[in-house]
């Protein structure tokens, strides 16, 4: 369900992004015909008003310009959707990142963390090693400023920081997680985000639930999964918070979160799993969006959760699941020749439904602290 047009103006009045297209076309049309577009249209309308029996003769140059722009629109508009919703950088700055928030693993994670299905026991020592390597990549290899929050034994799921905050540009929405046991995690996250001088919005509606793992930001718009952890009211509050972007909802039934089987692998590239549920969700997103995204289909749903970054001086970077874990999916990622590929192991946290994006909140801080 599409909740909002990308641009909101006035009190409750919604303006379609196509209005920006018509404005741009009008300006370009004036340039093509020598700045005389309005004058010629006015003359034609005046002649029509004087006598309806006389046919309006359209100047050849104007007719040619009109045909040119019809062709231009047919080719360009699919790729211009969301142009007016770029906010403070939008699609052109997608993937830029200066800071990352992470949190240490509590020992209580092994026995008390939430999981959809009971499975193998988590090896805490190995989980900590994998997490340290993950943080090390963000800090040392990519040069991000990493804020490491301490673990809390009373909050066994606290390592999964993505679920408690959605950050876009200079605004952070503190969520209301769908699992009641996780709601105290927001307190520490709030203090950390305040230290970065971000605009903080708190989700206080008791009827709303939202997990950050259900929020996919493409650089142009938001897709929000409606799952057992996220409801429609939560999606509405997200739309109210980030008014410059369109927000569409996507039903999620067979997975924990929307990003359990998809993520962004590039500025215009959606990584998607091969399962029926993943492909159904992709179809919904394609139907809801005004923009045409490229897709990268991987055999394994879990491997479709990856982290794309665009770091100045380093270029396109993709953190993805290690070949030892998902060899066939890793082969698909290797086709991205313009990306720096960084394989990351996530064997242990995956046992409790954790994915790569779950363990960090990425922030592009453009203003000074």
TrEMBL record:
It comes from the Eukaryota. One of its GO terms (biological process) is arginine metabolic process. Substrate binds at residues 114, 157, 162-163, 182, 229, 352. InterPro entries: DDAH-like (IPR033199). The chain crosses the membrane at residues 55-77. The active site is at residues 257, 358. Pfam families: DDAH_eukar. Keywords: Hydrolase, Membrane, Transmembrane, Transmembrane helix. GO terms for molecular function: amino acid binding; dimethylargininase activity. One of its GO terms (cellular component) is mitochondrion. Belongs to the DDAH family. This is Dimethylargininase. It comes from Podarcis lilfordi.
